[in-house]
Amino acid sequence: MAKKSKKQQSGGTPATVALTAAGVAYTVHSYDHDPSHPSYGEEAAEAMGVSPDRVFKTLVADVDGTLTVAVVPVSGSLDLKALAAAVGGKRATMADPTLAERTTGYVRGGISPLGQRKRLPTVLDDSAAAHPTICVSAGRRGLEVELSPADLAELTAAVLAPVGRG
Questions:
Q1: What is the pLDDT of residues 24-36, one digit of tens each?
Q2: For the chain, which terminus, N or C, has the lower number of CB atoms within 10 Å?
């Protein structure tokens, strides 16, 4: 596992570019992605040696016709009813993966809540606040970014709500 500080990161992904532009402290973690691994998030946690409670996956759902981002721990799943309630909606379903990729500009397994092509309403599971830092996708498979939950919430204009299920 290689670690790079933001000063060492060159080029970068839209997510790391957005973080650098915002002047936010972050650390990039890269690892060799195994296409046969059954879970992108669990693979990231294992590869980085980080608790799955601190590694968050980015999921795109459709809440009453509006694509909405949910950021939840990889150790659990998304509560769609809670997500809908968090954004004042009635019903949520998982978004079509192709539409999620097209809208965010990222591929499945590498969708970052940061630097998306189109800014979407975002909900960060409130369990993130229990950690000084969390890891989210940096915009491609095998690349994660570690930052404070407060910085992530501020940069994505996220609502903090209990949308993850253990």
A1: 999 999 999 998 9
A2: C
